[in-house]
Protein 1
Amino acid sequence: MKTVVRAESQKVWTGSSPIKDANLQLTLIYLCRDNYGDLNLLDTDNIIKPIQDALNELVYEDDGLISDVESHRRFLSEPIDITNLPLLLQEGVIIGEECVYVKVSESQPLEKYL
């Protein structure tokens, strides 16, 4: 997963250099098949680290800048309303293709999360 995320990120990342000084939030949405033999492979915590590592030195200088993580997994077999989804996720749902949506943004004050 790390290699694929890195390659795809390089195609769309428009920043001139990695972010060096910020508290960042990483938002992940993983659309996947549900016919895996071992569902532990799909644990959201197992998905986070390879994606964080893939973005090191491309999007941000070090994944230590990530102070907040929001991670979601949905099975493609579930009904998913695509109305307000980003284009990548809409396409993934429509064609039934596994995909990961990654958003890096500035962290919010703690009270915004409560």
Note: The two ends are 31 Å apart (CA to CA).
Protein 2
Amino acid sequence: MSPRRSYDQYCSAARALDLVGDRWTLLIVRELLAGPRRYTDLHADLPGVSTDVLASRLKDMERDGLATRRRLPPPGAAYVYELSARGRQLLPVLQALGVWGEGALGERRATDAVRAHWFALPLLRGLESGSAGSAGLVEVRLEEGEFHVRVGAGEGPVYGDGPAPGEADVRLSLDADTCGALGRGELGLREAVRQGLVEVVGEGALAKELREA
């Protein structure tokens, strides 16, 4: 385990960066917001990170109380990492960074990796803004794959890779161009629905709110 590095400044922002300022740490948090993940799954969804760096960051996060490691019961019997309650509090931090970074996103470069669930956090933000307090499970279908988000998730995972586990309250279908515009902040989710760029299927409260927006 690497020794803790510190800015040694009596400032809450500096203290926060002592914990999450290292490269890859916040992206690991992004992945763990989906719930428990195996090391191999994390490595697959963090293209570019070395095995040594990933292992080091996970150990640091355990030490600092941001994540825990536990063994799944049989027949899984694999070790998984998951966020602690303190680690889950970083969700609005990541969402704020996403908003701040929209202007730098630009068009996708040939060297850019992409995973469908990376669109989950900006989409969740769009769903929660103006949802009138409605909670629910949303399944999203993109050209790159499927993921699901939980509006009003509380203490649990806020999104997950693949189809919704169980019956979704609403299903959204959209293409890569619309996803890119949403991620860059050029288009709002409700505006995209009004323009027919997002197909909404479902009869739950969230579906009705999206159609009526």
Note: The chain has a mean pLDDT of 91.
Protein 3
Amino acid sequence: MLAAARKDLLLARLRADGRIIAKELAAELGLSEDSIRRDLRELDAAGLAVRVYGGALPASPAVADYTARQTVATDSKQRVGRLAASLVEPGSTVLIDGGTTALEMVRAIDRTTDCTIITHSPTIAAALLDHAADVLILGGRLFKHSAVASGAAAVEATRAISADRFFLGVTGIHDTEGLTTGDADEAAMKRALAGRAAETFVLGSSEKIGAVSRYLVMPLDEVTAVLIDAADADSPTARALTAQGLDLRLSA
């Protein structure tokens, strides 16, 4: 089997099964395990898979740049955003992460809601200009890929704040690999924000469910709930998360 054909097969298996175990697939196809592992390394380098011990998992399409992500799973992001917006209570202080799902959340928040919103995303802050909410922007180095502040200065800024709820954006939600994102500094910033809130809710639009990115943000048992699209409630990942006892909340 030619290398290109093997890679197409590996990608098809990832889509169908949600994971590849290199040893088992090599035996099934009558190929060497080294060939499968080499193909997986190349798929990982191309951003099409994420290598893990013994095989690979699907790479998240949510690691694309900010502009490209605005066209991915837009309906799902809107539904999850509305669900998240319903959890913003008058008089509360909330932290909102950056990203396109978070932007849909902000768009769905009642503009008359009197609350305090803290964010490290200039895009999120700008979307709140016409809202009654007080808005606090955390500064730092601008990570242009996600349009958020990150780095040491941004992490340091989190020490001066506290919030009732944090709405966390990630690029991967997986039942064994946890909550992941594509940049180490961004992952550190997300952890710092989560540490300043009493509750953390994950914004789980469709393209993130069952996908994995390179850097762990936090394990699943450290969040309050994952907000997902009702259309994904029957997915293998959603069923596995429910079996683990995770609180999954579904959009209308």
Note: The longest helix spans residues 3-17.
Protein 4
Amino acid sequence: MDRELAVIGTIQSEIKDIASAPKMEDEPGAVRARIVMDPAYAEGLDGLEPGAALEIFTWFHKSDRSVLKVHPRGIKERPLRGVFATRSPARPNPIGLHRVTLVAIEAPLTLVVEPLEAIDGTPVIDIKPKPKGS
């Protein structure tokens, strides 16, 4: 079984550290950001158009992969829960899911999206159209 991920692009964002990042894309602090694609994946962008609803999958490269229990939303007054019952970025496989709108495609290989809560430099591992009706 192949277990390797390909980094297809990188986030360019005004958000520079985990502490200043909002927890979700629909919260204050989410920004318009860019995804600079690796040229090897250029053909995979065919068919994308501004206005498209997308799901961006990222690798939370600064997350703690050893954590299995967290206080939901980082609020210490909340009881600890297993990471699989939360949206915490700290988890064994720190995959982020971001629901965004494609604002523009800048030449040669840059997607402008919003709203995004990922920090600058976050690796992008996949892009999918958002399912209709969700």
Note: Strands lie at 9-12, 31-37, 53-59, 69-70, 81-82, 95-106, 110-116, 123-129.
